[in-house]
Amino acid sequence: MSLRRWITVTLTVSACLTPLAALAEPAFLAIPLGTSGGLYEDDLSSYLLAPKGSGDFLALDAGTLMAGLRKAAQLGSLDGIVTPADGDLIPAAAMLQRHIKAYLISHPHLDHLAGLVINAPDDAKKDILGTGPTIDRIRDHLFNWQIWPAFGSEGSGVLLGKYRYVRLVPAVAVPVAGTGMTVEPFALSHADGYPSTAFLVSANGAHVLYCGDTGPDAVEKSDRLQQLWRRIAPLVRTGALKAIFIEASYPDGTPDTRLFGHLTPAWLMAEMHVLAAAVDPAKPATALQGLTVVVTHVKPSMKAGMAASARIMQQLQSRNDLGVHFVLPEQGRRLAL
Ligand SMILES: [Zn+2]
Ligand SMILES: [Zn+2]
Q: How many whole angstroms separate alpha carbon 277 and alpha carbon 166?
């Protein structure tokens, strides 16, 4: 074999090798309960997360709960979490009442809350965590006896107090009660400064970043994503960040004026390049190699033909010059992170 050929083969083989980050032991278990960014009311944004081996989960957003839990039960994803001790309840209900310990709500749009509202009467006592604007809107516009009973710990009229509202302060990490995890929130911009949130969830020295709906900095005229990338860059550098959940709502070609505070594959890759430069300014091209990025909130299309999620994954892969490990989550199917 000539030297040139040997180099070509070696480079090709090493490019195909599983990145180191992916070989590390998983630190978290995620169970997507809802993955789409609209249209399907039984599959709206919600992701369960727990440290590996723990049965105490938090829910990142709560667009769909029971439909996702029933799917998870069918797929065997609740096996070993729901135990014979929960035998008086169907597995989905045991998970809802006994194993989801808290809700982290990124912003109060209905596609991130509908499942929580509908299931509130049958839920157990727990915390709802969010930034002030999110909690205020849930208190004032949902659990207010006008739309639904006042299940929260604040508001006017008789308070049922099933949910304790916990107001998070940007860049301040606090424990999530009932779980072995902490959460640190960061403000995001979701069209004209509408408040959305990213949550950095941490346990045992490992981290997952979940981003609520967000537009790109350039379109939002904001630096919030840039600040977020600077904050998490050291965690990416050391491999302590196990995954980023972030949206790609619309396909490429969507005009910036029609994004309504969302990302496309092209804009997501542009933001990944900003992150890569923060992680390794000297070698940004390899800084994110093997980093797991879970693609959320794809808006389904009503048109016949290729599914919107397949199109968006294709567009992301074709632009993926950073070696990012893009994952399309599936409702009810476990993700080891
Ligand atoms: Zn939204
Ligand atoms: Zn949304």
A: 35
